[in-house]
């Protein structure tokens, strides 16, 4: 499902490339390199979250870091961070305006993510709270068996598809730097923060009253507000000086 999501996002970005005057070959190169960054970042975040468990397992069984990297799952926020960093690097290397590349790719992200969440539902990971109208994931090696669990993966996929169509509408014309990014950071930050209350998988990690993903979501919402309200003003001041 991740591969299908990537293919759908690639097609969407290629079809939208003329809005920001991006060459197709530069865009495709950025997307494939971003995929590598997403894989690396997603695994590294997963490893960081589960590092105490890894140390315990390493002491008991001799489990190595390379084995841990091979077996590690993917954390979305880590994948998103890795993808953005690799896009920035690649855009600089190919000589493409960074904001133009980001604005072209970003509306594809919730589409890719939505399809990926359907894969989470199929695998039974990232499951929701026990509830009477939930789904049994008895064939899954990740979820508890014999209990109905809220299919929060499908709820998030639906929310992401709505965000995708909203971003398509907003991004159908060229926007000032930072605006499309602000739309995404704020929109997805809110979606993830709310849905985390309905998640039940312990691997997320809880710090204080919120999960790790909720703390990151709050930071992204704040960053989105910054890009929405403050960043254009900063750019105008710099230009006028």
From TrEMBL:
Single GO MF annotation: phosphatidylglycerol-prolipoprotein diacylglyceryl transferase activity
Gene Ontology CC entries for this record: plasma membrane
Keywords, ordered alphabetically: Cell membrane, Lipoprotein, Membrane, Transferase, Transmembrane, Transmembrane helix
InterPro entries associated with the record: Lgt (IPR001640)
Record protein name field: Prolipoprotein diacylglyceryl transferase
Lineage summary: Bacteria, Bacillati, Bacillota, Clostridia, Christensenellales
GO-annotated biological processes: lipoprotein biosynthetic process
Family the entry assigns: Belongs to the Lgt family.
């Amino acid at each position: 499902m991740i591969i299908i999501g990537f293919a759908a996002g690639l097609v969407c970005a290629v079809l939208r490339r003329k809005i920001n005057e991006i060459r197709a070959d530069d865009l495709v190169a950025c997307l494939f390199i971003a995929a590598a960054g997403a894989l690396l970042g997603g695994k590294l975040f997963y490893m960081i979250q589960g590092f105490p468990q890894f140390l315990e397992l390493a002491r008991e069984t001799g489990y190595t870091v390379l084995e841990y990297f091979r077996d590690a799952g993917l954390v979305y926020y880590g994948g998103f961070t890795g993808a953005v960093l690799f896009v920035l690097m690649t855009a600089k290397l190919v000589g493409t305006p960074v904001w133009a590349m980001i604005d072209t790719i970003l509306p594809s992200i919730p589409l890719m993510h939505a399809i990926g969440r359907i894969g989470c539902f199929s695998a039974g990971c990232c499951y929701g709270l026990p509830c009477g109208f939930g789904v049994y994931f008895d064939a899954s090696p990740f979820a508890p068996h014999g209990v109905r669990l809220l299919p929060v993966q499908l709820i998030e996929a639906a929310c992401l598809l709505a965000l995708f169509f909203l971003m398509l509408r907003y991004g159908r014309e060229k926007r000032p730097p930072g605006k499309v990014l602000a739309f995404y950071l704020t929109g997805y930050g809110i979606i993830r923060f709310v849905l985390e209350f309905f998640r039940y998988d312990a691997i997320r990690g809880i710090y204080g009253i919120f999960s790790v993903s909720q703390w990151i979501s709050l930071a992204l919402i704040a960053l989105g507000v910054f890009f929405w309200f403050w960043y254009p003003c900063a750019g105008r001041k710099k230009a006028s000086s």
